[in-house]
Amino acid sequence: MKFTKYKAFYSGSPIEYRVSENKYNKKIFIADVKTDDLKIDEIDITNYKPINNYKCNSIEDALNISSEKLESNEWIYLEIESDRTLVASEVKKIKENKNVVDIYLKLKGNSYEKSEILDDSMEKNIKEAFVKYYKFSNNSAEIEPSIELLNLFDKLITDDNKEGEEI
């Protein structure tokens, strides 16, 4: 690399932030400009917490990897191939591993879809968001959804609903 023809370089980050970054070696360049001869030293740096991408053949596989990697020193991206979407309890279980950064869900038979991990506030406030939407769709801040409707909503967002059971 010829440094003498350039006046500046973008240093980037010594920390990986995306899966795509883990294919590049991180370096520090030290330029000695005190002499007439420009001297450049390269120092390779080791990432303190690398990013690793795991391809999972099922949601169960993703749950197992998340559990097995609880104590690992890595940022974890999970690519899950499944014939169904994740339910809230599965996301919560995967998120018990604080190193899990993101989940990519590929539904079988569909194009590649990205499904980001829900943060805790979303999970806790989904019912509140539903109530706000219900009021909005009824053009009234005073009209509350019935207890039966809220119970049905709870049943839909949890995995308590057994496959094939009519709601």
Polypeptide structure, described:
With 167 residues, the protein is of the alpha/beta class. The chain has four helices and six strands, in the order E-E-E-H-E-H-E-E-H-H. It has helices at residues 59-68, 88-94, 120-137, 147-157, and strands at residues 26-32, 39-45, 51-56, 75-82, 100-107, 113-114. The strands form two sheets. Strands 3-4-5-6 form a four-stranded mixed β-sheet, with helices on one face. A two-stranded antiparallel ribbon has the order 1-2. Strand 1 (26-32) and strand 2 (39-45) form a beta hairpin. The chain is elongated, with a radius of gyration of 24 Å. Residues 111-123 have low confidence and may be disordered.
Précis, in short:
It contains four helices and six strands; from the N terminus they run βββαβαββαα. It is an alpha/beta fold.
Determine the structural class based on helices, strands and strand pairing.
Answer: alpha/beta
Number of helices: 4
Mean pLDDT: 77
Proportion of beta-strand residues: 15-25%
Unreliable stretches, pLDDT < 50, 5 or more residues? 111-123
Task: Offer a few descriptive terms.
28% helix; alpha/beta; two-stranded antiparallel ribbon; elongated; 6 strands; four-stranded mixed β-sheet; 167 residues
Secondary structure blueprint with pairings:
Layout: E1 26-32, E2 39-45, E3 51-56, H1 59-68, E4 75-82, H2 88-94, E5 100-107, E6 113-114, H3 120-137, H4 147-157
